[in-house]
Task: inverse folding
């Protein structure tokens, strides 16, 4: 499409598209189209100016070419591009604002004196009615202060001040409503990209769709390791489902066609096609917005303290006014005091700041479920990491297979793969994958598989007990022995790998060495976190001591615990919290859920087990742990902003009060300054806190 | 003279009302209304243009500062003219 470049700086370009008309949908499509291109960081399309603002990291030529070759919205793009309902809302408020300000300007210039008086009286009556309505709550609220301010101005014949005050108050109300709606919408928009997706089956094809698109009677397919997302009936396939989250039974339940499955339970083995009985309700955005409003109930203590303080200050403002009048006998000074109240600024700017911080996190694909979790991240001094999948890539690979007891390497691998293929753990996948890679095929040769959490797998082959798992499991729990003469071979196995031990009939048959490399950004990330004030970095893993020691050293943690059970992780966190520490837990697996709930802030890696993501308070993108740094940065910036807001409100308004009492400023001026500063603070609270 | 006013009143009450609510009149009101809405949309659009221009200025300002910082740093490292004028252009 033809376009004119209006602004061209490094990494940012603004062009005016030469199209006749742009609707909201056209903008949605344009944003969708350009944001898909690699190297383009952020796109903004505006309907009434036909402008496209693109932030990019790729070469400028690519952006120019992309714009040139953009054809506009076609049916395919229209069906794919997500809708942004925020546009309509924003436009509504922009229009209201434009009309309000324009009409005010007109009135200020053209109104004759008696019209001013009439209008002022009318506003006064409106305010009084509003204030009277708040009496029902039994407390003195800000509306009462506003009504008194206006009434006093009118009664003194100061119509100009009355008009200004009522204008600013109405403007403030409008902006407050708008910022609230916008903050929630922005947050919803960034969250809708991070929402759970399920595989819907239509005919022969499977498509990944957001969970909120599923209707009743749609068919979805659920595979091994996933959480069953919705209630429904199995129509095809067989599976083994762990219903512990619902019924508490630890033993998985077999599900076949005709059986009912429940949302929130985990499909451990097999796969099944389910016809959905209970979809999640209409509208992706409505769902998210509802969730955000729920999360507003998870207010941080900072927010609740601010709200409480705001309400308490109202009677003091009134008392202050009366006191000033009594002491100075000057009505004007008393009224100046009346115009300044601390409450509204505090009450409005706090929630907006928190929502804005959550939205900023969302822009970086970090989903924070409530303000109090951001607060917890800022206050934390201890952080606990899971090893596999969190500090490591969780895509381990088999490095070596060492056979014992006269077995052959490939045979060991064959048996191991046969047992491990039922198990959704990444180590198991490595074994299975290696077997496939070596072209080893196996038939189901074992009987029922018993999965011992965090330890291993037990089964029977040809009547003989076959086990695969950790050293603790094989040697201590099950009392297997190392075949005679092979002790040295056993001892010489390098500790740098994670090890899976295979034993049949009580005898060690093989050791599979699995390499689970540390994520490359870990040492840097951990030292950065330490710089930002996290004092105790701990690694906890169910893995063996030798591997844990190596990874711990490489990562740079302060301490580590190996061969740990899931309950132990939670226990450790509980004890630290009792000591008064604030703890963050970072994990990804089903095993981490208890620990994630126990922590002050539980963070799950978004690629990890769905159940971990459900229990977690915050989810972070899978490909890099650097998000933790961003998270900490935003939470610290939020704290700084909240503190700053407090100080500004108290300082600025306190000064206005003083100036009013001393008679340096007229009530009209103090009202203007107070209300404008409140509005300004509100708008400022909406801006980004960190610069990126 | 009271009579004129009375007659005018009657006229307004009868013919006047019918004129003011006639189809043609409503057309006129619609045009006025449309003009009003259009004016509002223009105000909103102009507001958007101002906002975009401010963003442009902010982006350019940041770019200028970054460039200035880079030149300073280069001067620091080399500590000798490298074709760059290390004195800032005032």
Result:
């Amino acid at each position: 499409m033809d376009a004119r470049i209006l602004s061209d700086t490094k990494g940012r370009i603004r062009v005016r598209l030469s199209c006749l008309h742009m609707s909201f949908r056209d903008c949605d499509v344009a944003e969708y189209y350009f944001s898909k291109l690699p190297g383009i960081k952020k796109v903004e399309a505006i309907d009434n100016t036909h402008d496209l603002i693109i932030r990019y990291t790729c070469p400028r030529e690519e952006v120019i070419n992309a714009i040139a070759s953009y054809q506009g919205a076609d049916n395919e793009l229209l069906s794919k591009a997500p809708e942004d309902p925020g546009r309509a809302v924003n436009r509504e408020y922009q229009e209201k604002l434009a009309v309000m300000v324009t009409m005010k300007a007109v009135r200020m210039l053209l109104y004759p004196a008696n019209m001013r008086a009439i209008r002022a009286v009318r506003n006064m009556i409106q305010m009084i009615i509003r204030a009277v309505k708040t009496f029902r709550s039994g407390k003195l609220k800000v509306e009462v202060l506003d009504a008194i301010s206006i009434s006093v101005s009118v009664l003194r014949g100061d119509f100009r001040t009355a008009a200004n005050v009522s204008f600013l108050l109405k403007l403030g109300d409008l902006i407050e409503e708008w910022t609230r709606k916008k903050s929630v919408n922005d947050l919803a928009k960034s969250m809708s990209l991070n929402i759970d997706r399920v595989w819907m089956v239509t005919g022969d094809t499977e498509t990944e769709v957001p969970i909120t698109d599923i209707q009743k009677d749609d068919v979805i397919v659920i595979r091994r390791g996933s959480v069953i997302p919705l209630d429904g009936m199995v129509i095809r396939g067989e599976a083994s489902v762990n219903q512990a989250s619902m019924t508490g039974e630890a033993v998985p339940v077999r599900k076949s066609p005709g059986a009912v499955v429940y949302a929130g339970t985990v499909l451990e083995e097999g796969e099944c096609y389910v016809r959905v009985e209970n979809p999640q309700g209409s509208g992706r955005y409505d769902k998210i917005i509802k969730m955000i409003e729920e999360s507003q109930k998870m207010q941080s203590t900072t927010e609740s303290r601010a709200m409480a303080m705001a309400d308490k200050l109202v009677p003091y403002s009134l008392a202050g006014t009366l006191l000033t009048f009594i002491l100075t006998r000057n009505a004007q000074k008393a009224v100046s005091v009346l115009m300044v109240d601390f409450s509204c600024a505090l009450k409005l700017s706090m929630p907006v700041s928190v929502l804005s911080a959550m939205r900023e996190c969302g822009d970086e694909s970090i989903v924070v479920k409530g303000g109090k979790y951001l607060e917890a991240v800022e206050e934390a001094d201890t952080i606990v990491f899971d090893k596999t999948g969190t500090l490591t890539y969780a895509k381990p690979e088999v490095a070596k297979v060492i056979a014992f007891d006269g077995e052959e390497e490939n045979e060991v691998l064959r048996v191991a793969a046969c047992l491990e293929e039922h198990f959704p753990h990444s180590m198991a996948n490595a074994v299975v994958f290696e077997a496939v890679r070596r072209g080893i095929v196996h038939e189901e040769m074992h009987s029922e598989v018993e999965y011992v959490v965090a330890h291993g797998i037990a089964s029977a082959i040809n009547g003989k007990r076959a086990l695969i798992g950790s050293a603790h499991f094989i040697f201590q729990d099950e009392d297997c022995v190392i075949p005679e003469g092979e002790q040295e071979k056993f001892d010489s196995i390098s500790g740098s790998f994670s090890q899976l031990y295979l034993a049949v009939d009580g005898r060690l048959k093989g050791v599979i060495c699995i390499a689970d490399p540390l994520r490359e950004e870990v040492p840097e990330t951990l030292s950065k976190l330490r710089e930002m004030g996290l004092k105790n970095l701990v690694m906890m893993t169910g893995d063996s001591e030798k591997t844990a020691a190596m990874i711990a050293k490489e990562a740079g943690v302060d301490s580590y615990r190996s061969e740990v059970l899931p309950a132990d992780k939670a226990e450790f966190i509980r004890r630290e919290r009792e000591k008064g520490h604030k703890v963050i837990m970072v994990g990804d697996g089903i095993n981490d859920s208890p620990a994630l709930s126990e922590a002050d802030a539980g963070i799950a890696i978004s690629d990890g087990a769905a159940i971990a993501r459900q229990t977690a308070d915050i989810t972070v993108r899978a490909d890099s742990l650097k998000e933790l740094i961003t998270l900490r940065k935003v939470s610290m910036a939020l704290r700084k902003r909240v503190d700053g807001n407090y100080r500004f409100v108290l300082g600025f308004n306190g000064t206005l009060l003083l100036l009013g009492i001393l008679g340096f400023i007229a009530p009209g001026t103090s009202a203007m300054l107070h209300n404008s500063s409140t509005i300004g603070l509100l708008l400022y609270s909406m801006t980004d806190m960190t610069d990126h | 003279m009271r009579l004129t006013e009375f007659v005018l009143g009657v006229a307004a009450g009868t013919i006047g009302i019918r004129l003011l609510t006639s189809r043609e009149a409503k057309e006129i009101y619609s045009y006025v209304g449309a003009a009003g809405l259009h004016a509002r949309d223009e105000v909103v659009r102009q507001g958007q243009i101002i906002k975009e221009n401010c963003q442009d200025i902010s982006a350019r300002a940041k770019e200028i500062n970054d460039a200035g910082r880079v030149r300073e740093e280069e001067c620091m490292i080399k500590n000798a003219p490298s074709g760059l004028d290390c004195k800032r252009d005032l």
In short: Chain A touches chain B through 17 residues (CB under 8 Å). The domain at 3-81 of chain A is CATH 3.30.70.100 (Alpha-Beta Plaits). The mean pLDDT of chain A is 83.
